[in-house]
């Protein structure tokens, strides 16, 4: 059985910064403190702006040897429009913008340049053995159709030896008609299907069901909350995942679970607590109690 590594989506969002880190922990000390509690993290800031190598070097230097960082793809890589200023200055002149100043629908050639710049910046993590996968979270307007499959195939080629993690946001990918073909396609690509726990709204097209299937040796689960990210899971809701996580760990070579509920809830003592960190710690405890292999304090 693969040991399940548990973490949060970001180590520096507002909820964590204000309500999880001890008072006085400076910005540069947060990642080392985080790494004392969790041995993996998902870097989501890279969705908004391309990383630079110096910053990534600091991430690698501030984490232990066995730490794993998965990195969310920059918005342009997943067919989201991005602000022109989010690009490095030397790429801005090549980008065409819409009336709102956003870069949208660039050429494959330009996207390729952006992806190469993104991947080059991750070299400090790659060379230190700390780079996990690249999370491609597609928007809800990317639906199951041939041009979408073609883009996925092209994007996978751009990544070379790096692992591609794919999360869909439109129900067409995992509905009864397309589920088998979608999973088979990801397996053919060697890409990882990202399993989600998300709000359950019947008929919603911008939400996908939780399909607990592997398309690569990696099991990757993202917990978004049951009410659009501002949600604290109960123990009963986390316990629903003990069996599925056990099964996934039996099938996978490596397994990860990340909490993306990035708001706060009352802590029962008159204060607030960060939902993601609280749920990540609690899931660690519940899995340990059920003898499911999980990383974290014994």
Unreliable stretches (pLDDT < 50, length at least 5) are none
- Count the helices. How many? 11
Query: What is the N-to-C order of secondary-structure elements (H for helix, E for strand)?
Result: EHHEHEEHEHHEHEHEEHHEEEH
Shape: globular
CATH hierarchy class name? Alpha Beta
Overall structural domain count: 1
CATH architecture: Alpha-Beta Barrel
The CATH topology, please?
A: TIM Barrel
Percent of residues in helices: 25-40%
Structure description:
It is built from eleven helices and twelve strands. Helix content is 34%, strand content 18%. By secondary structure, the chain is of the alpha/beta class. The longest helix is centred in the C-terminal third of the chain and has 15 residues. The strands form three sheets. An eight-stranded parallel beta sheet has the order 1-10-9-8-7-6-3-2. It has one domain: Protein of unknown function UPF0759 (TIM Barrel, Alpha-Beta Barrel).
Layout of strands and helices, then pairs:
Layout: E1 4-8, H1 14-19, H2 27-35, E2 40-43, H3 53-61, E3 68-72, E4 82-83, H4 89-92, E5 102-103, H5 108-121, H6 123-127, E6 131-137, H7 146-159, E7 163-167, H8 179-189, E8 192-197, E9 218-223, H9 235-239, H10 242-251, E10 254-259, E11 264-266, E12 272-274, H11 275-289
Parallel strand pairs: 1-10, 2-3, 3-6, 6-7, 7-8, 8-9, 9-10
Antiparallel strand pairs: 4-5, 11-12
């Amino acid at each position: 059985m693969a040991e399940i590594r548990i973490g949060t989506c970001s180590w520096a969002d507002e909820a964590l910064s204000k309500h999880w880190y001890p008072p006085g922990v400076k910005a540069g000390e947060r990642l080392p403190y985080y790494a004392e509690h969790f041995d993996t993290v998902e870097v989501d800031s890279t969705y908004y702006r391309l990383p630079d190598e110096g910053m990534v070097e600091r991430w690698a230097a501030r984490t232990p040897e066995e730490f794993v960082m998965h990195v969310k793809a920059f918005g342009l890589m997943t067919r989201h429009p991005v602000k022109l200023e989010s690009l490095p200055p030397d790429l801005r002149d090549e980008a065409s913008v819409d009336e709102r100043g956003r870069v949208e629908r660039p050429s494959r050639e330009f996207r390729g340049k952006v992806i190469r710049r993104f991947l080059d910046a991750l070299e400090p993590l790659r060379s230190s053995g700390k780079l996990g996968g690249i999370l491609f979270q597609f928007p809800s307007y990317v639906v199951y159709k041939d041009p979408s499959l073609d883009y996925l195939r092209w994007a996978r080629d751009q990544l070379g030896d790096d692992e591609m993690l794919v999360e869909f946001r439109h129900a067409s990918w995992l509905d009864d008609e397309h589920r088998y073909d979608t999973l088979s396609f990801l397996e053919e690509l060697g890409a990882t299907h990202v399993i989600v726990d998300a709000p359950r709204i019947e008929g919603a097209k911008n939400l996908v069901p939780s399909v607990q299937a592997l398309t690569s040796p990696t099991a990757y689960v993202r917990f978004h909350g049951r009410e659009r990210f501002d949600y604290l899971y109960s123990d009963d809701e986390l316990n629903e995942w003990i069996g599925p996580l056990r099964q996934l760990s039996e099938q996978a070579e490596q397994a990860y679970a990340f909490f993306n509920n990035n708001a706060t809830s009352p802590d029962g003592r008159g204060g607030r607590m960060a939902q993601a960190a609280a749920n990540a710690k609690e899931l660690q405890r519940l899995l340990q109690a059920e003898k499911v292999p999980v990383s974290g304090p014994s």
